[in-house]
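Appendix B. One record, verbatim.
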Amino acid sequence: MNPTIDVSQLPLRDIHLPGSIGWWPPAIGWWLLMALALVGLALYAVQYYRARHKRAALKAMTRVRAALEQGAEPVACLQFLSTILRRFAMTSVARAAGEPDVAGLIGERWLSYLDGRWARTDFSAGLGKRLLVAPYARPNSIERGTALELTALCTAWLAAQPAAPRPRRA
């Protein structure tokens, strides 16, 4: 050591610790988690948007059932029920590639189309046959119980339908 230098006068500092770690920028794992959450949210939004026609039709079916239970005319309710099914089929189901033009289907072809969209034959061979004559029936010619059963059948058909597929591109 050099005796001419006074060590106590040197500008030395004691050992110091690094500062605390900041929250920004996050680690790569947090970035991946945020990206995964955004992709999941986008997929949910797309699915929610595609199912809008189905939700609207099911809501209308609920209103028809409530009207029937409150004493509304069954023939008028079944006319509206037929309209709901036709609109739903034209707006969401029929957009799939290879599906027939739903607007032109009448009679047994309409019932066969409805049965073809699920694994049952309740429309062409069961209670669903009333769907053909109900819109043209005289008032008070259909029993309320039959109308409620037909409403339940149509609601089950709607619930069994998948969300709308992607629209086809020409």
